[in-house]
Design a protein that fits this description.
258 residues, alpha/beta, Immunoglobulin-like, 4 helices, 12 strands, 28% strand, disordered N terminus, binds calcium ion
Amino acid sequence: MSSNSYFNLERVKDHVMAINKFRWFVGTVFLFLLVSAYAYADVNVIAEGTYTDTQLTVTIFVDTTDLTNGDADPIVSYGVKLIYSPADLTNPTVTENDTDWYFGSPEAPLPTPNTAPDTSTDGEVIIVGGKIDILEPTAGVSGPKVLLATVVFDRISESIPEVSLELGKAGTYANFVTNVGDVLDGTDRINFLSSAITQECILNGDLNGDNRVNMSDFYIMQANWGRTGENIADLNGDNRVNMSDFYIIQANWGKTCP
Ligand SMILES: [Ca+2]
Ligand SMILES: [Ca+2]
């Protein structure tokens, strides 16, 4: 698929740079002075995942708090590729964060058909997006752990799932651009941190949600004993609270989640 079928991020960059020509110039000089003094990363991209027996859910964030130039440059466009093993994971379902990243205005976002997630290649999920608010075109997005997207996979192996991150379309066009026209691709100002994947702890029988199965949960079951219909203590979902549910509590008795 050609890059032209995506939202044209070069146009975003040109747009922002035209508006901010003077600021861009000043910012570049300022940045150059800082670069000579510090080695740093401005933007960290992070993937965090939890898996169950059947699924892996990955949330991808951008974190712009590690800025050392004293000016939290908002991001107006991004592109990230999430890499996975097709032998372990399949059927990625992507939900992008349209609340923070949009074009137009919050009240009337414009259609952005070319920023749809690309899952056409096995082993890759590419998300591309940005924020251009027509009322405030250089505002961009900044802050700690700003959500980019959530990706849910089906697990098809017993291997502990792994994912990694890189640029969405490296080398084709600018994927991370700040509101002052800095293109972060291929520079030390963007840092794809290793992903953190953990097993989701599910405790069937933890009725009060304190991450342990004990007498407190038993008392809740006792109080609901014999009831029919939807019930918190109906652990097997057959619309009655009886011995079948008690056996589930018994099987998990004393277990805890971290
Ligand atoms: Ca409990
Ligand atoms: Ca039941």
